[in-house]
Amino acid sequence: MRIEKIKLHNYRQYRDVEIPFYNEKLNICIGKMGIGKTNILNAINWCLYGEEPYLSMESKGLPILNLATIENSENVESRSIKIEIWVTTDDNQKIIFERKVRFLIYDGKIKNPVAAESPHFEVKISNKEGNFEIFKDEDAKPYIERFVPRGTKEFFFFDGERLDKYFREATAEKIKHSIFQICQMNLLEKVKENLENVIKDYKREAGKNNPEIDAKNKKLEDIRKSLKDCKSQISKVNEQIVIAKNKKEEYNEKLRGLPDTVKLQKRKNILQERKKEKEIYLDTKKDNKHDILFEIGKNLMLFESIKNSISIIEEKERKKEIPPTIDRNLLKHLLENNKCICGRQIEVGSQEEEKLNELLKGIKLSSFISRELLHMKNPLISIHDEIKQFKIKTKEITEEISRYQKELDDINTEISQIDNELGGFDIEKIRMWHQAYQDFEKIYSENHAKLIIFNGEKEGYLNDIENLENEIDNDIKKKKILEQIRCYHDFSKKAYNVLKNTKDTIMDEIRKEVAIETKRIFFDLMWKEKTFEDVTINEDYNISVTHVMGYECLGSISGGEREILALSFTLALHKISGFDSPIIIDRPLTMVSGESREYVAKIFLELALERQIMLLLTPDEFKDVRKFWSNDFCNFKEIRLVGEREVKLEAL
Predict the structure, then answer these.
(1) CATH number of the domain where residue 589 is located
(2) Which of 91, 163, 506, 516 has minimal Cβ neighbours within 10 Å of its Cβ?
């Protein structure tokens, strides 16, 4: 199917505008930010589905009815919004999708738009005679599903940011859901659900005739409810994981090239604590050295005297002068009394007297002096030894002081380096970004842990359900009175299993086809021919891009490469599903820059030869790629402001 044109009447900025679409040409609309470019996407969605998914915060506060129309209305008047999408099928049948709604205007002003009637939707389809058949409201909806199904509209109408983020945010479940939606597997799923309900009904019917089966049915329902709750928790956890992953990447991008202020500040705090410790140690060692110098300094002045005194004492010891063998006073007392210590009389001139006089002459020091000299010896030797150890002690403590001083200098140097690294940055903002990154990292990890637990519970519930269903089936078979119910039940269950296996087989075959087609389109479009080796979607629906060197590189490819991958996946889905409706992209180059922007621009030109494509660009985006697009292959329209409330489309 091809869009011929879109007519917009009184829709937001568009009072009366017709947007033409061309085949085999790249359709391009250029408009400044805020002028209404994205509202073309909103208009298409509103016409087909009655919703505006891409409204800006500013537009959400404004009425959907054109403001100039409101201001130019007088008294009580009704004004309508109408959007028409004119489509041509491959066999040249004309289809017009139309949605309109009327509003009441009060005295040229309106605070809260109130519809005079509910939105009216209809589809007009031409017949062989050239006349149109009209289908309204519910009868018209099937034709939307044949054009662009509601569940798959995001694969036809989307913005450039989605193209860039799709495989950043995509989980295996999301890719599986995309394949499920685009390939209309919901029809099989609906039949499968209906068969599940039929089987449940037969089990309930059997339970009415057997209390044991009834009890097991109730238990089965409780487990199914628990399983449903568990799946809901898994879905929520997966959402949190995706949100946390995206936020991590967002803050990681903000922090790219910036210093890790949290880490640096933490390191600085540790260094400052160490600095205080080293300063205390250094001051203590300096005080110790000062005390040593003070104590030994006094003795240093007496070193020679101490040394001589020790020499004198040792000399007298060698000469046996000290300690004395006999007390001098005792000898004097014996000679004066002429008596031996044993009490015998000593004769004058006797040998005993001569011997005593000889001994008396040989003792030069008194016992008192001798004792004093001996008492002095050890302290003098100690002082002497301390003085001899002075150089060793001062050397050791000086080396310690030098070591602490060097460590302190190194700490001060590192603190200065950190201060220089942090200089000129908004440390508080960067700290908040780091904290936010860590918070989302924690959320990411915690939810991964929860996911493991919930998946374990899910497997447990599935096993319990399977075991209990087998028990109920066996109970039904044993009861002959339930023969008819058993036959119906068995037939329904066989049909369910066939349908489930068919669905699983089809999904797997489609997965393989989408993977092969995605890879083919990706390598057809990719300008880096020797960079990538493979693109796969495995049995768990995880998409993978392999570098020529063999490593997984999906997380590190550029914005342009991600956009080509997302386009390849989207086009593969279109081809496999058989849908050939137009693709409309708002800001397709917003996340692409430099050389990649040029390549992506050329790729859209090639794709336009195969299918209808419209790109909505800003003037800056258009300026960068204008040289690659000629009027022979492109249809250019510019959205221009007329007055303050209205825009027009003009050929460029």
Answers:
(1) 3.40.50.300
(2) 91
Give the end of a domain, one of 422, 438, 470: 422
CA-CA distances (angstroms) from residue 67 to 14, 73, 645, 647? 10, 10, 6, 12
What is the domain extent for residue 370? 262-324+365-422
Q: How would residue 365 be classed by pLDDT, with cut points 50, 70 and 90?
A: very low
Asked, for residue 116, whether it belongs to a domain, the answer is: yes
Is the residue at 199 inside a domain? no
Picking from 187, 226, 225, 179, the residue whose alpha carbon sits closest to that of residue 538 is: 179
Helix (H) or strand (E) holding 327: none
Domain final position from 422, 454, 469? 422
Positive or negative torsion for Cα 307, 308, 313, 317? positive
Distance separating alpha carbons of residues 207 and 230, to the nearest angstrom? 26
- Rounded to an integer, what distance in angstroms lies between the CA atom of residue 390 and that of residue 520? 86
Cis upstream peptide for 323 (omega within 30°): yes
Structure tokens at 251: 């803050």
256 to each of 259, 264, 268, 409, 632, how far by Cα in Å?
8, 15, 21, 31, 43
Looking at the structure, tell me whether residues 144 and 267 fall in a common domain: no
**Side chain identity at residue 632, one-letter code:** D
Q: What is the pLDDT of residues 138-168, one digit of tens each?
A: 888 888 888 887 877 877 887 776 666 666 6
**Torsion-angle region of 50 (φ positive above 0: left; ψ -120 to 50: alpha; else: beta):** left
3-state secondary structure 372-392: HHHHHHHHHHHHHHHHHHHHH
